[in-house]
Amino acid sequence: MKLSEVLIKPIVTEKSNKLTDARRTYAFRVSRKANKLEVKKAVEDFYGVNVIDVNTIVVPGKRKNRFTKAGFISGQKSAYKKAYVTVAEGETIDLYGTV
Question: What DSSP assignment string belongs to 39-91?
């Protein structure tokens, strides 16, 4: 798998910001086929940091229902894979860039 296909996007939420401040851990949405070694190499290459640890989780899809004029519509959101990446002491990843 190409390294450009591994990382999809960073996850920026209140929980991920707290993890970044407390433990230097960043959250990324990654490809379902990617393993921990590929995620580690991709983050090190793209952001230029040393990765200490990678934890992955597959977030299951959720059933969604809504009632519209056309009637009751039900569907399902797709499952995705999330990776929590811990970087070395004193290193950071600039997710916001020049916003």
Answer: HHHHHHHHH---EEEEEEEEEPP-EEEEEETTEEEEEEPPPEEEEEEEEPTT-
**Domain ranges within the chain, ordered by starting residue:** 3-87
Tens digit of pLDDT per residue, the chain (99 long)?
Answer: 888 899 999 999 999 999 999 999 999 999 999 999 999 999 999 999 999 999 999 999 999 999 999 999 999 999 999 999 999 999 999 888 756
Integer angstrom CA distances of residue 80 from 51, 90, 92? 22, 30, 25
Q: Does domain 3-87 have CATH number 3.60.130.10?
A: no
What gap in Å lies between CA 71 and CA 91, rounded to an integer?
A: 52
pTM of the predicted model as reported, rounded to 2 decimal places:
0.87
